[in-house]
Task: structure prediction
Amino acid sequence: MARSKRKPPVALTEAGPLFGETWWTGLSSAMKHGIAIGSLFIVALIFCWPVLFSSGSLIGGDTVNWRSMAEWVIEHREETGEQALWAPNAFGGMPSYMISYVLEVPQVDRIVVHLDRMVRPLAHLFTMLAGAYLLAFVLIRIHWASVLAAVTYGFTTYMPVILVAGHNSKFNALAMAPWLVLAFVYVLRRPAILSSLLFAMALAVNLRAGHVQITYYAAFLILIWWISEGITSVRGGQAKSFALSTGWLVVGSVLAVLMVAQPYMANAEYRAFTIRGAAAGGGEGGLAFDYAMAWSQGWGELVTLLIADAYGGGGATYWGPKTFTAGPHYVGGIVILFAIIALVRKRNVTVWALAISVLVMTLFSLGEHLEPLSRFAFNVIPLFDAFRVPETWLSVMVLALAVLAAIGLSELGSKEEPRRGQAAEKPIALWATAGMLAFVIVLMLGRDVFFDFEQEGEFEQLAAQVASQRPDLSIDDPQVQSFLRGQMAEWRAERVDMFQGDAMRTLVFLVLAGLIVLAVRKRKVAPWIGQAAIVLLVVIDLTGVGRRHLNADVLVPVDQPQDLIATYDFDRFLIERREAEGGPGHFRILSLEGGNPTTNARPSFHHESIGGYHGAKLRYYQDYLDNVLFDPESGRLNLQGINIMNTRYVIAAGAIPGMSAVYRDDQTGISVYENPNALPRGFFVGQARVVEDDDEMWRLLRSGEVDLRETALLSSAAPIQTSPIEPGDVDVELIDFGPHEIRWRVQTDAPRLFVASEVYYPAGWLAFVDDTETPIHRVNHFLRGVEVREGEHELTMRFSPSTHTTSVWIAGVSTLLVYGGVIVLLGLGIRARRRDETEDEAAP
Result:
């Protein structure tokens, strides 16, 4: 028998009950999809045009920092063909899992990644648009309304902002998020092994994008949706079906976790030793609340969803509560209008799930400005304390808002318009439009009541700048005060103009949308034409604001991020010194050229640095930075902290006490200072001392009270043999140094402890004295120590984490199972359909 095809209800047909067949409604579904998706591609292509068809490249600052950190790992991979799992060039050495870790098992995302290398960011942007479109279409079956969801999500201003900033992994994860939610919806509607496998593929792809924070937020959206569906199913007597769907979701989730065993097994192992997973002093770990809440969205700043530059946009004009920002989270008045219409007109489980998600994620984005909720979530919800920058919640919130708006637009021309001979229903869309217009007008008229257009402490900061530039002038001088007030007034006027301009812009778009709604209601145009016109307005609105951020002015005249990394004469001097001593592994450098060495990745491109730039530093090393390298009370650089890390050279513009300049770069004004007291990279000590208290350990390391050339400080008691050293008793020679292995020839006349100025990381580093594995002890809080028996030996430290090999095998087998299962099931489905068609044709 032929399969029956259920027709959608009248309220969801694009012609609507009032209008007959039109050109659009006469097209096949495939043709409509082709036009809709083709339109999305054209819009994406036009938006990416400055990047794709100009001599410049889109390379953000974070991309440059990443390349600086990853240079030594990439160089090793290109030279040897093997993956370097340890990066020795930053923070004294750290695992490369979260810097540059190539996924060895291919999955479907490899296609997008390959295309992205040729047409970035078009490939991921189009993937994002297509995913959001299909998600909305599965829910509402209206093509142009689904296009609205796509353009809203894909062109919300946050997307071009993060592209310009170089947040590539975040953008890639956001591109995959709609596909994850789509797969979830598919499992709910068709609980079966095929839908479960597709969900596994989508979840794995999202995780492989490398920004688990976005996946976590998307999972939060899914969780709220799942709870809503569960409540509705139980009330409607469909608990069994919901339980089946839940079971298949669990199966898919487990398979997805197995498929991303690489990189997440290594990442999870690494996280336990980082500032995101381990606390100083052995506490519970996770980020500190204040640190995690940085870049919280302000209450008033939420108005930027409606009026783009209400808070100055970004850069120097921004006056909101964040330290700084590059741009707003703007979606526009039309999108918010139709989301409201969906809430009023379409009160079903999907709408409520999306609306609750929008509300919860918006509240979470407030962070420190809604501390009771944020602190509760931080302390109670699993993994909530692993992420920072609460405003990021809004990037996923927009996905839920976009689908809500699509549902609202799908109602245009359905039941709101009366049939002939029937009383008119309430014109909800028109009333909502009027309400939105009134709200924007109130904001415009009452701008001085609602906004002060001045960042907190801005006057004091300006005064401090003036004082630093003109110490001969008193801040209390009337002329200085007049200048300060005049400058503040000028800034305020500029911000007011930006607010007024974008508020008026929002008003115009809302008026145009209202006219379209009225035209549909009065039966002047068909609903599908009205929907397409609304989509066009939103495209013009969002891409217009987005172009303020992504344009030819932000492009750079180079092709690769490494081309933006400067190489100075003092870098060449230090590289020559390194080569003269036999290559890497002989000394490290500290660069103070940019102020804080922990936020400057450039030196790590060229040298083995004790600084760098990374959001997940090793906990023991962070303790060193906070309590040894810098004095925790004064914040000043501590010379003993420099010595302990084999830091032979310091790059600085000013003088360094106790060090002499060995090179001066006249072009930059930077000098290279040689540190005569730097401890060797590897050496024997004559005694060991146990210091179990961390605070006491840090005090001894920075005070110089203990001669670390003679004494190693152990964090716990260990039966270590050692004896005093006299001249000629010991000898150490570095034989080979690489990211995976370090070898020394060592000689000692008695059993002693060998201290390596290498960062302690027990999850993979092994030590061998000749061919005998020997335990690695944690010495001086964050370095490595190895017992060496009497005689001459070859001491080897090898980074060989079993998690890497194991994770590749797990990911490979599970990926083969899932993708193979999908292919087999799809093949069986096609075969069964053809058999049914053959039987139908043969039937009399």
Summary: The mean pLDDT is 90. The chain is about 50% helix and 10% strand. Residues 10-58+120-554 form one domain.
